């Protein structure tokens, strides 16, 4: 069993930057595609960004494209999500999820099919 741990959330002002991290416990991350989702109060969980297990094929939701960068550091067994120019509408609980056995370069953008999930980290953006 793999437990994912997100960190880096917090309260920031609009326009600020934040970097979230996702780290698995108990297993190497290197063979897993990793995806970030978020869920705002009263809304469904939505895709934010994903990266393949090879490190390529990064994909972003239109709402964050140009403001977010997803990257992985397999030496540190961590996937990062950097968010710049944060907006109040970015406020949500951010979750990372991991999927094994995807072809190289592929990213999972849906909730269904992910093998493991983290507990989430809260991001609050004040205007």
Helix/strand/pairing category = mainly beta
What summary fits the major beta sheet?
Answer: 7 strands, mixed
The 3D shape can be described as globular
Measured by DSSP, the beta-strand proportion falls in: over 45%
Point out poorly predicted stretches. Answer: none
Task: Return Rg in Å.
Answer: 13 Å
Order of helices and strands: EEEEEEEEEEE
Instruction: Determine the fraction of residues in helical runs and give it as a percent range.
Output: under 10%
Distance between the termini: 40 Å
- For the secondary structure, the number of strands is 11
Average the pLDDT over all residues and give the rounded result.
95
What count of helical segments does DSSP give?
0
Provide tags for this entry.
mainly beta; 127 residues; 4-stranded antiparallel β-sheet; 7-stranded mixed β-sheet
Task: Summarize the helices and strands and which ones pair or pack.
Elements: E1 3-7, E2 10-13, E3 18-25, E4 32-39, E5 46-51, E6 59-60, E7 68-73, E8 78-83, E9 92-100, E10 116-117, E11 121-126
Parallel strand pairs: 2-11
Antiparallel strand pairs: 1-3, 3-8, 4-5, 4-9, 5-6, 7-8, 9-10, 9-11
Molecular structure report:
This protein is mainly beta and 127 residues long. Helix content is 0%, strand content 49%. The protein has no helices and eleven strands. Strands 2, 4, 5, 6, 9, 10 and 11 form a seven-stranded mixed beta sheet that branches. Strands 1-3-8-7 form a four-stranded antiparallel beta sheet, with no helix packed on it. A hairpin with a 7-residue loop joins strand 5 (46-51) and strand 6 (59-60). It starts with a strand and ends with a strand. The relative contact order is 0.33.
